[in-house]
Amino acid sequence: MITSATILTAHARIRPYIHRTPVMTSAGMDQLAGGSLFFKCENFQKVGAFKARGAMNAVLQLTPEQRAAGVATHSSGNHAQAIARSAKLLGIRAYIVMPRTAPAVKKRGVEGFGGEIFECEPTLEARESMLRDVIARTGATEIHPFNNYDVMAGQATAALELYQEITDLDIVIAPVGGGGLLSGTSMATRYFSPRTAVLAAEPAGADDAYRSMLSGQPEVSQANSIADGLLTSLGDKTFPIVRENVQQIITVTDEEIVQAMRQVWEKMKIIIEPSSAVPVAAVLKAGDVFRGKRTGIILSGGNVDLERALQLFQAGR
Amino acid sequence: MITSATILTAHARIRPYIHRTPVMTSAGMDQLAGGSLFFKCENFQKVGAFKARGAMNAVLQLTPEQRAAGVATHSSGNHAQAIARSAKLLGIRAYIVMPRTAPAVKKRGVEGFGGEIFECEPTLEARESMLRDVIARTGATEIHPFNNYDVMAGQATAALELYQEITDLDIVIAPVGGGGLLSGTSMATRYFSPRTAVLAAEPAGADDAYRSMLSGQPEVSQANSIADGLLTSLGDKTFPIVRENVQQIITVTDEEIVQAMRQVWEKMKIIIEPSSAVPVAAVLKAGDVFRGKRTGIILSGGNVDLERALQLFQAGR
């Protein structure tokens, strides 16, 4: 479904609309990990997250008729901003269903791009039900946050850029929520860095992907973690790709996530959101896996309420 | 005193020991400023601040006899870490006099590089008195944080790198405390980007440089600001350079500093310390000066206690 040409074409398509983000290194983080880490900084991406890639790739492929009716999605935050921004760039309307618990900074982001927000309860059922209503009313095209091949191909371009810059990676590790970034990362790795092992990191409080890998079929889990971007479960399009291409999923606790986030803020002087800290926490936790290795880490985003983050740090002391 | 060759030689000398830091841009910050901003990110520098440059340039020029006796300095923080790190890299001892009010993160930094800390009261008299004692006891060479041409030439290399990357800047703005960074920046500008106007930004609570420019002679001021790296006054070596080369000094309040710091954290996803936010605050405050212009901003460092930053953001709401 997603070929190397799909990813390269997506990259050419979205390139005028996204940042080529830097790959950062840190002697302090390398020392903690006992290996060489290469951070793909999607926290510096447009809208502050990799989601700008997939959303742009999907919206750019709509027909004129589809554009006229607008786009719709449900999202806990970064995808919502990304859809709103993509729609604004093309002059079309965006209808965004968001859980009422989404961080204020992410809601402000959507509003800043002119997206129309519909708040709902923070459950998958409530999101999907409200989205159906909105689409019935507007005729908008749904752009799913992850269970969509155009979105996955767009997310794959982050790892593509990483491999264009850094060669000979032993491991690449990405966070997993719905699996869009992880699927894209794994397909990019297959085509552009086939010697690199694909690992994933997941919050222990939302470990459906970990359980699904163990049982070989889609599993559900609770969705309870500070990593608010990773509370969704794998979809029917992402699960097979993850199962086939991902070697290992490492789960981490909220406490480990906060500690990893603090290390990155203090040592690298960059702001990452809790979801971005999940793969960092996995690297610091599963030391033996990464020691002496060259590991690429996809830092997925940087959208976090500052007061909230600093409260987490205080509580983590 | 400081020629173009001095700066280029300093750059070649320290290059193996420092980061070439990135120059970042931000559509969000440009929008706030109404002009094009180019941020030289010395918050990503070794020890988290530009001070790594000047300290390394000075320590590398010590004689073998001087190296044997070690180095000493007094500093509120970043220079202290920079001296300790430079000394460690060359295998020599570092004696650091620090005010007891220096941020804990900066003290931990000095200790992490094996520097020996001597705490004193947070006054210039107390610092100088204790430093004299330490030097009398050890025979160490003092490396002053700013009133030293080798240190200034090292600091000049940040602006040199900026001009190697970004041309046609209308303005460059740096924070001013003792004037080491500002002197270096102004000399680099004279030689490598002579069309660029040199401006400075200073906390209103420690505005000795602003007053000195007005009166034409060294003035003293209170030293009361959250920008803890900028509480010192110009020295007899930095004052003449500043007076000759700096067109304007803009003062900003602590409230303006906190607001600017928050904007940079939120919009750029990078961590800067209050002293770094001073020139950003000046750009946002004196809008007419910068509107429609291309301005380089030296972000001097990123060493801030995260809990302290939280308190500042909360109080600034």
TrEMBL record, chains A, B:
Keyword Manganese: no
Gene3D superfamilies: 3.40.50.1100
InterPro entries membership: Ser/Thr_deHydtase_PyrdxlP-BS, TrpB-like_PALP, TrpB-like_PALP_sf
Cofactor (UniProt): Mn(2+); Mg(2+); Ca(2+); pyridoxal 5'-phosphate
A Pfam family hit: PALP
Assigned protein family: Belongs to the serine/threonine dehydratase family.
The name this protein goes by in its record: Pyridoxal-phosphate dependent enzyme
Species in which this protein is naturally found: Dawidia soli
